[in-house]
Design goal:
The structure holds 2 protein chains of 2 kinds.
Chain A: E1 7-8, H1 13-17, H2 29-32, E2 35-41, E3 44-49, H3 58-72, E4 76-81, H4 94-103, E5 105-106, H5 111-119, E6 135-139, E7 147-152, E8 158-162
Parallel strand pairs in A: 1-2, 3-4, 5-8
Antiparallel strand pairs in A: 2-3, 6-7, 7-8
Chain B: H1 18-43, H2 52-80, H3 86-91, H4 111-132, H5 138-166, H6 170-183, H7 195-202, H8 213-226, H9 249-257, H10 259-263
Classes of the chains: A alpha/beta, B mainly alpha.
Chain lengths: ~170, ~270
């Protein structure tokens, strides 16, 4: 388990919460854990953003959305993309995981269980529609780099599973 | 997480001589160009995969590689210090200036061929990334730490397909064997060291790729055997990519890749 202290100034939180992940709009950038630092210095808001995956196209959009959100309240902002430490699914908040499930995406399992379902045939991923674990992997790669495609064998609905990344 | 204990030994860019910076620049391109050209090749398959899931997988892999490429190029631009952008490096070089190995530029002949190319690269790529995680260079280390999870996933995917197709029907077996036999000649080049490779490896920044040649062939052979395929014995190997001497396919890739910049110079999205 990676513990990370993240320096985010309290008064910036409401605005950061208003900026969402373009791929999973129910999640704010704070829920997703991609904001590594956010503070105000000499009237300029400085934000450090980290990508979920190297090629995540959402990063450019998030960066633009942050600029827009802060410029609307008359604040100047600098966004810096940082690679280290590498993002982990542990950084998604519990609130975020719940929102994700309600949205229809299964939450990441632990690292060992993640391997069991992606490599083996173990049935551990819970269907976000009917909560059955009678599910199977359809494809290791899903609609975005961070997800895999599953199907529920009880309610027969296909769904995305957010892969564990540590 | 990698600790930062190596930082005391690292060579800050400001203290590097012009020659060292040049070698670091070339070294970064050597790694990055492999990812760019393979990403481009896989990107060509967007909408043409054998089925929807595989199509998405191939473009996902392409995107991972492209993301890594961007991080490398952004850093290379900074190292060079000539005011270039990542796009300049990606789009505005001549064929001879691209340092990618010949393997990654080979065409998408058929799905088995695409998987064979991917597999032969992934095994190497993961070994290289593991070593790069130990680099004294903070940025390269960060890119490797970030990318290694993606690359292990690619390797898993391509190895699975080698086994499925190799140990599949008579036809899939035959096609896969043919692809492996054909691409085998491009494997040895991975382990050749350029001048930049040698200097950067000695400085603890780069990876001495010549060191894991044996481990590479051992791992590849194990998967091939499991896939009921024959490990090629040919001793003829092609080289040149690392020095900018490419196969005839490279020009066509660049014609596509550079089209927009050549047609509308300095265009941006």
């Amino acid at each position: 388990m990676l513990t990370q202290t993240v320096h985010i100034e309290k008064h910036l939180i409401p605005i950061l919460e208003s900026v969402s992940d373009p791929e999973i709009p129910v999640l704010s950038v704070l829920d997703l854990g991609v904001i590594r630092e956010a503070f105000e210095e000499n009237g300029v808001v400085k934000i450090k953003l980290t990508p979920t995956y190297s090629g995540c196209p959402a990063m450019d959009v998030i960066s633009d959305d942050l600029k827009k959100a802060f410029s609307e309240i008359g604040k100047e902002i600098e966004v810096e993309l940082v690679l280290a430490p590498a993002w982990s699914t542990d950084w998604i908040s519990e609130k975020g995981l719940q929102k994700m499930e309600a949205y229809g995406i299964a939450r990441p399992l632990s690292e060992t269980h993640d391997k069991d379902v992606l490599l083996g045939d173990k049935k551990l991923v819970k269907c976000p529609q009917c909560a059955s674990t009678n599910t199977h992997l359809v494809s290791q790669f899903g609609s975005t780099a961070c997800k895999a495609l599953f199907k529920c064998d009880d309610c027969l609905e296909p769904f995305d599973y957010f892969k564990c990344l540590k | 997480m990698n600790s930062t204990k190596n930082d005391n030994n690292s060579l800050p860019m400001g203290e590097m001589s012009g020659g060292q910076r040049g070698n670091l620049y070339n070294y970064i391109l050597g790694i990055a160009d492999n990812s760019l050209i393979l990403a481009q090749r896989l990107g060509e398959l967007c909408g043409h995969g054998p089925n929807l899931e595989t199509d998405i997988a191939l473009t996902n892999i392409s995107l991972d590689l492209l993301g890594q490429t961007r991080s490398y190029y952004q850093y290379a631009a900074k190292v060079e210090g000539a005011g270039k952008s990542e796009d300049d490096i990606a789009f505005l070089r001549l064929e001879r200036e691209y340092k990618n190995i010949l393997l990654v530029e080979q065409p998408n002949t058929h799905f088995g061929y695409v998987m064979a190319r991917q597999f032969l690269f992934d095994i190497y790529h993961l070994m290289m990334m593991k070593e790069l995680q130990k680099s004294k260079d903070e940025t390269l280390r960060a890119v490797a730490n970030k990318g290694i999870k993606e690359v292990s996933y690619h390797k898993r995917f391509s190895s699975d397909w080698i086994k499925r197709l190799g140990d599949g029907t008579e036809e899939s077996h035959g096609k896969m064997q043919e692809a492996i036999d054909d691409l085998w000649r491009y494997t040895n080049e991975m382990f050749q060291m350029t001048a930049a490779d040698t200097e950067m490896a000695e400085a603890g920044i780069g990876v001495d790729v010549s060191k894991f040649k044996e481990a590479y062939y051992k791992e590849v052979s194990e998967v091939l055997k499991e896939a009921t395929l024959t490990v090629p014995e040919s001793k003829y190997f092609a080289k040149g990519g690392k020095e900018g001497i490419h196969t005839e396919h490279m020009g066509y890739i660049l014609a596509d890749l550079q089209y927009m910049q050549k047609t509308f110079p300095n265009m941006t999205w």
